[in-house]
Amino acid sequence: MHIEKNVNDNILWILFNIDGKSKDNLNARLDLKEMGIRSELHPIDNGNNFVIPQACYTLNLDERRVVCQFLANLKVPDGYSSNISQCVNVKEGQLTGMKSHDCHVFIEDHLPPAFRGILPKEVYEPLVELSIFFKQLCSKTLKIDMLERLEHNIVMTICKLELIFPPAFFDIMIHLPIHLPLEARLAGLVHYRWMYPFERYLRKLKSNVRNKAHPEGSIALAYLADKCLTFCSRYLDRTETKFNRQERNFEGPKMQVTELPIFQNNGRPLNRGKGIFRKLSYQDWNHAQLYILKNCEEVQPFLIEHQKELEEEGLRNLPSRQDETFVKWFESRV
Fold first, then answer.
1. Cα distance between residue 211 and residue 61, in whole Å
2. Coil, strand, or helix at residue 93?
3. What is the pairing mode between strands 44-45 and 50-51?
4. Could you give the C-alpha distances from 25 to 101, 141, 292, in angstroms and in order?
5. Helix or strand (DSSP H, E) at 263
């Protein structure tokens, strides 16, 4: 998990050209000049100071704002990750304050769509390969042949990155992913070895400290009080506790409105009952009807019957023809 954070931070710092943190600084460019490689990135001495040419992987302010705007408008399922928009400053085009799990989610899921169409192809593709590497390595199921393939691919990915970024970018943290597939083969799934649950619990213990002169005593007393309250709450039937309270996204009891199972689940608006009314076009109304009918088990025989009738007319554009005509056909058929 910390390797993901360090790799993610190094990538973002060099792409966003963060002063004081980016590995693409004057010393890195002087190293290129001394090594005699990548002459287009050599610093230009104008007498008083050096002018550093912009690299192909460095984003300008407008491009950084596009990335930040994408992250600010991003919507993810509940409980999937923290609200990453709190780490985004769209006006200045900056990402700050990302925790370890934020970097874990960003490098595996958000990095490919965030930089698509912004970075050049030769820069974008190795970063996507690195994202896929971490995504597959942290999956719930690992196979030996997949780990062997990852062990080979990550070497090629690092080599591609070496053709793009300056040598100063490649510290020990960029080298460590090469050994992660072998570690997974020897030790098993990543989920049983990373520190997320322990750090969350340590944060809970640290929040119990009231007297900073005796933190151990504060943590011990808070732990004892929590266990006592938990034991007592087991005997309180009519009192709301953490064991019997409703879920945060409780949708209400299930009500048997019709015999069709697709209409049995209830829901509630997420904006505290303030409904948003919209007049649907004919096309949107048809798509809504088609979605309901296609996901209703009782309608599946009629879908097959309608498909057979269309097959007799011809097989060309069969799915689109069925979507266009099924609603009216089903209405007349039933």
1. 46
2. coil
3. antiparallel
4. 28, 41, 57
5. none
Residue ranges in the chain assigned as alpha helix (H): 2-16, 26-35, 61-72, 100-105, 111-115, 121-137, 144-162, 172-175, 180-187, 196-207, 215-233, 282-294, 300-313, 318-333
- Beta strand 94-95 pairing with 88-89: antiparallel
The Cα 273–Cα 128 span in angstroms is 41
3-state class (DSSP) for residue 20: coil
Q: Write out the chain's pLDDT in tens, 334 residues.
A: 789 999 999 999 999 999 999 999 999 999 999 999 999 999 998 888 899 999 999 999 999 999 999 999 999 988 899 999 999 999 999 999 999 999 999 999 999 999 999 999 999 999 999 999 999 999 999 999 999 999 999 999 999 999 999 999 999 999 999 999 999 999 999 999 999 999 999 999 999 888 888 888 889 999 999 999 889 888 887 888 888 888 777 766 666 666 666 666 666 666 665 667 778 888 888 888 888 888 888 888 898 998 888 888 877 888 888 888 888 888 888 7
Question: What is the rounded distance in angstroms from the CA atom of residue 107 to the CA atom of residue 137?
Answer: 12
3-state secondary structure 102-171: HHHHHHHHHHHHHHCCCCCHHHHHHHHHHHHHHHHHCCCCCCHHHHHHHHHHHHHHHHHHHCCCCHHHCC
- The torsion angle over the Cα atoms of residues 176, 181, 183 and 188, rounded to 10 degrees, is 140
Give residue for tokens 């340590």: 202
Amino acid identity of residue 108, one-letter, is E
- Separation of alpha carbons 108 and 100, rounded Å: 12
**326: CB partners within 8 A, 6+ apart:** 290, 293, 303, 306
12: tokens are 């973002």
